[in-house]
Amino acid sequence: MAMVLEVLLKFILTATAFYQTAELVPEETKPSENDLLIAITSDRGLCGAANSSIVKAIRAQLRSNLNLENSCKLLLVGDKSRAMMIRQYRNMFLMTVNEVGKKAPTFEDASTIAQAIISSDFKFDKAVMFYNTFKTVVSYITTSQPLLSLNKLSSSENIGIYDSVDDEVLESYNEFLLTSLIFAALKEAAASEQSARMTAMDSATKNAGIFISC
């Protein structure tokens, strides 16, 4: 099991390197028209701003370009992002995913999300995934990660540097690449959420202690 996780971790770390080698990573990860925006949150609260920071980041992008509301779609992972976005952006929902964060995320969870994206009717140019990256026990960084569509990958002029890459191989690789990046985001988000929850509960305990002592 440890060997499998080690191999998977190495693949995740080199996933973005593939984008860079094929010269597919844009200088900015800001969403553009006809993009899919993915929010990685959870179903659980009591973790400070871990969930709301993701929603704030997406809202900021949408407000910076009003045309995005008419051309982009939202895929919301976790009930928290759905609850915060449904009133204003209901028409942009492509799909929502719940039962996230109650247990440790698995590669199967990521695969389910990836397959839902691939099989959806929405043909996007790229997806931008927003999630929290664990930094320390008391801090995390809201991160945006581009996820490119199969058409975008196959149209790269530099894809030919990889030997024996036909349509079937590229499709399989893209599915595994997408799943791996989503899995990495789920793991990072889970670690950030747990650290934020520990910090929030510790602060609540201290405040309760002060109140009782008074």
TrEMBL record:
It is a peripheral membrane protein. GO terms for molecular function: proton-transporting ATP synthase activity, rotational mechanism. Gene3D superfamilies: 3.40.1380.10. Residues 1-17 form the signal peptide. Keywords: ATP synthesis, CF(1), Hydrogen ion transport, Ion transport, Membrane, Mitochondrion, Mitochondrion inner membrane, Signal, Transport. Its main location: mitochondrion. Belongs to the ATPase gamma chain family. This is F-ATPase gamma subunit.
